[in-house]
Amino acid sequence: MILSSTLQRGLAALLLAAPVAALAVGPGSGSQSRHNFRVGSCQVSSMQVIYKLDSLMGEPTVSGSYKWTGNGNCSLPSSTTLWLKVEDGRGGRGYVRLSPAVPKGNGAYGYNTTGSPDWDEALCGFNGNRRTNCLPPNGAKNLWKSGRVTDFSVTW
Question: Can you give the pTM of this predicted structure?
């Protein structure tokens, strides 16, 4: 049987795309909110975080941003960092670092691009804005597949 070159290219693209789609797993996408807390010298009335934690070709992908309301004359510190808490049902836990551009108060979400940390830096603890005690690659991959975002913390 002879196939046209267009059909051959279409079948090749389908075969190449299928394994990538099957590998796309992660804690997922969603949002979290927190109310009435301080960041630096700013009183934050409300902060909403949006995120997407996935994988592509076996590597983690991290995307996320936030917006906040409060005193419009206040600016959050440029070092503001968010830590998404990822937990599974067996007691596994780690934090994923988000550090998008800091948005102005009472405005839109801050700018961010999707990143891909190494597995040995994907899920960690934290001290301020620094990662600590990161899970080894196999542990991080297992938590990435089975965990979900349950909360977030803000540091600066």
Answer: 0.83
